[in-house]
Amino acid sequence: MPQTLSLNGDWSLAWHDDFPQFLTAETAPLRTQLTAHVPEPVHTTLMRHGLLDDPRIGLNSLKARWVEEQFWVYRKVFVTPASLPQPLPSLETRLRRDEGRGVRGVGSPPPFPPTKEALRGREGAGGRDAKVFLTFDLLEYDAVIYLNGQEIGCHANAHRPARFDVTGKLRPEGEENTLVVRLDAGLYAVADKPGADYQTTQLSLLTKNHWMRKGQWQRGWDWQQRLMNVGILGDVRLEYGTFQITQLQVYAIPNPDFSEATVYAQLTINSSEEHAGFVQFSIIEGDESYYEDQLILGKGISTHFLEVTITNPKLWWPIGHGEPFQYTACIFLAIDNENTELLRKVGIRKVEVDQSAHPEEGRHFILKINNKPIFCKGGNWVPPDMLYSTVTPERLEELVDLAVGANFNLLRIWGGGTWAGHDLLELCDKRGILVWHDLLFACAKYPGDYPEWAAEARREVQWGMREFAHHPSLVVWCGNNEIEEGDWNWGYDRQFRTHPHYALFHHDFPQIAKREAPYAFYWISSPYSPDYENPTDPTVGDQHPWGVSLRQNGPTDWWEYRTYVDRFPNEGGVLGASSPATLRQFLPEGQRQLNSPTWDHHDNPYAMQPMTPGQPGRAYQTLTHWTGLHAEQLDWETYAFASALLQAEGLTEYITNYRRRMFSSSAAIFWMYNDSWPTTHSWTIVDYYRRKKLAYHPVRRAFQPVSVVCAPLENPELPPDGVGVFGINETDQEWHGYLMEQIDTVTDCCPCDPRQDSRSVVIPPNSTVLLATLDPHRPWKPGEFAQAVLYDKTYQPVAQHRVFFHCFQELKLAPNPTLVLSLHEGVLTLRSEVFVWGVCLDTDGERPVADNCFDLLPGVPYSLPWDTALLGEPKILRTGNGLFAAG
């Protein structure tokens, strides 16, 4: 078996702002040497030594800017390992192990008698003909590597590993070697390269991030300050033996009727000389399936293709539609005395996008898994930390669990970040969360007109499509984020370097996807429209509906979403303040107030940007538009509550509009799910510290599988103020229950009894249906609203919804409503005789409450589980009505 020697652990680290070559010699002059725990970012090393304050807190990210301007030199001394490591047990022993033992777990392999000639070989993996490679899984960013004073190579791509042949360059067994890595954040190598030809934003002109193959968000985005990562961020190891597996690709394709599926494997092997051996490829769940053959390795790099057929396979399904079943694929190699076993989990599913003609206009855009239309619900994923390599598997699991808890079935990996990575994708595989994955290009013209840069981009894309192929959750590869829109609408064709990246996204990457990723659907860009239509066209392709939140004039009116007909909206969002607990955590004492220096530093520029000249910023003007309140007249905690409550309102409008149109619209994916650093205002429902913002539970309810939505009707024969009540059912079975709908006012209660005032309804599986029409000719007065409650067969409420036609400041909400709370056998029930907006049991997003930030409809009880031992006695902390108490 090829052997590895980990070079993780303690390295020495020094820095210099000029002449870094002084530090790279094997006998370099002494300077300050810090102990770095590789892998880790330079920023983390400096924090641990007390030389840098946490850049996530206060104004510290400004104090950290010097880090990206330095040259950093890592040094590691290690001993050459023994040249004859012990081989694994013989091939025959491995293949005849007892049932239930080893990695297979079930079944017994068929006879597999290799010839004696094939089994004979050298003494072990470290013989004189063995190759030795040095591998860095993740380098940030521009690196030159030296071994024993000799330069062995360089690397400048954080999106694929760095691998160097060091055969013959190590000192004899037992002697010390000196490994030196000189790197920087990338600014120096691009300093002389064209900037304005490709980018116009000031941040990009400084960093020229479009040249660097690293996460683009590091140069700063509206939702994070600039922090250019630097350091050895991934594992480091020596790999040695007569052969090395440089990459393994595994994926499954079912046949049209799902009676069989073929699992494909592609092995890329680097061999020191010609070898003969055997390979066994098996699927080891259920009835075992095997492929076995002689393996002939030529000297150098060779590629080998294997396949196994499974009869009547179990399919992988997204959450809510079936079991996300996975098989274990096992590849066992026996080459001379070296035996290697590789395992991959793989799911069998068919992926397609239905773009058939839409009955009204344009085309559908419906993601189908195993021929079943899936309405996609979720948010956009960005790297969960500005120091992204510090994110642990446990933190990823917490975020995925929160997404599942919010009734997500899809995460979109945004193209300005990093690869999702195996840890995140494995969690999505197990939970049944679909993944739309942009390739790592976003919001810029890219230098595809430079052959060397374009070749590296192609290598990166090929590596990623091979590396992550076995993950069944990964169903869409998308060429980039918003570059097609830039080509059409942002003036990319009005300055030098016209469409320099066009061939990459329209020619090169689609070819790579056709060859390497038949397991997924490939899409040119997001948004993108086929048939040469503008990518903003709402009737074809996918859409980024930003016209509401990013409009340039007038207030942010979320009710405009009610008319949006987008076929597959997968980016559009609403800003809202973080919870008081989070604001307290990153705002230092004395800075916890609106528009303090730290508040602004962590704020979103779109929140501060005035929508109307002379007015406060967008977020603050939005508050005034909807409530009549003025941010500067509120204490910061009250403002944070009001802002977060309005975000919940806006996201609910976004989601319910598209869900009630299923499958005319086939998604409700918003920007964005998670944060990369603590923020004042953000687009997310889960903040940097994984606290649930107030919008979390409203989004969860809006995404629940069986739901009800009240919305203005669009029938041209009726006045525009008519209201339809839509039933939504994403399950596989007809839903039978009861509907109670009525018109009410915010200050009066119409007594109702669901057993008397509701009627039986049926909602077909995986569909939306119009259940009722409410007073289409009614002139709506302030304070009047339409409401609907869906009950199950036992008259327990399943979902509720309401629709207003006047802003909250016009509704005359009761400022101090009387709420009656009763707790019985672990169920908390709340009731009010008047409408109560946004009842909050947890304002900080830290308590494990089952529900939060919900409305009380007049006279309609609202119940949720309540564990007194865990949560204490129930208490209403705030309501939206209370915002008007001072008036």
Please provide a written account of the structure.
Pfam families: Glyco_hydro_2, Glyco_hydro_2_N2. The protein has 887 residues and is of the alpha+beta class. The protein has 20 helices and 42 strands. A hairpin with a 5-residue loop joins strand 13 (243-254) and strand 14.
Question: What about the largest sheet?
Answer: 6 strands, antiparallel
Kindly provide the radius of gyration, computed on alpha-carbon positions and rounded to a whole number of angstroms. 30 Å
CATH architecture of the largest domain, please? Answer: Sandwich
Terminal Cα separation, in Å? 76 Å
| Fourth CATH level, the homologous superfamily of the largest domain | Galactose-binding domain-like
The domain tally reads 6
Low-confidence stretches: 84-128
The class by helix and strand makeup works out as alpha+beta
What is the percent of helical residues?
Answer: 10-25%
- Widest sheet: strand ordering: 3-2-4-10-7-8
Please report which band the strand proportion falls in: under 5%, 5-15%, 15-25%, 25-35%, 35-45% or over 45%.
25-35%
Mean pLDDT: 90
- Tell me, briefly, the overall form: globular
Compute the number of helices: 20
**Topology-level CATH name of the largest domain:** Jelly Rolls
